[in-house]
Design goal:
Distance between the termini: 25 Å
Oligomer: single chain
Shape: globular
Number of domains: 1
Structural class: alpha+beta
Number of strands: 9
Mean pLDDT: 79
Order of helices and strands: EEEHEEEEEHE
Length: about 160
């Protein structure tokens, strides 16, 4: 999956007893997957900046280094934007059933985490405090609707001034 993310959405489905996470990126690509109760017991520590198995903190309390502003080249302005919303589904229209989380480049600024089903490609997301806070906020309401007795009150987020260790 490519970044940047345009929209994150999470809804609880009482028939499936799962939370459907939908990620839309700027290129009109949609990715969706089911978050089960068991998977959320693994995902919630990750969203709090902890390793899901060891509990080790993945962020430190040091403020990020000031590296100066990043300068991006602007894209040419299009005369008329396509307003139709016909997204593509690179991993298929059916939601994936997430069962694993893997990390890449964890000790770098390009850290990513990947939500994976048992056998297929998954959704690759940047492992940043801003996105972790956004995911926590997005799944909080569906998690409350689920009545899974998972720790909802502990969802406060990761301080935005932290950086990866």
């Amino acid at each position: 999956m490519t970044y940047p993310i345009k929209q994150l959405k999470a809804t609880y489905n009482s028939v499936e007893d799962r939370i459907l996470l939908t990620v839309e990126v700027q290129q009109k690509q949609m990715y969706s997957g089911w978050l089960t109760r068991r998977f959320l017991t693994i995902l919630l520590p990750v969203l709090h900046g902890q390793h899901p198995v060891t509990g080790e903190l993945l962020f430190d309390n040091k403020p990020p280094e000031n590296r100066g502003p990043k300068i991006y080249q602007s894209k040419p302005v299009l005369k008329k934007e396509d307003t139709s919303h016909n997204p593509s589904y690179p991993l298929g229209e059916s939601p994936l059933l997430f069962s694993k989380i893997t990390f890449t480049a964890l000790k770098t600024e390009d850290a990513m985490f990947i939500l994976l089903p048992n056998s297929n490609k998954g959704i690759k997301l940047p492992f940043t405090p801003a996105l972790l806070n956004l995911l926590l906020t997005t799944i909080k309401e569906p998690l409350e609707q689920s009545n899974w007795a998972l720790e909802v009150n502990g969802i406060y987020g990761v301080p935005s001034n932290n950086r990866l260790q």
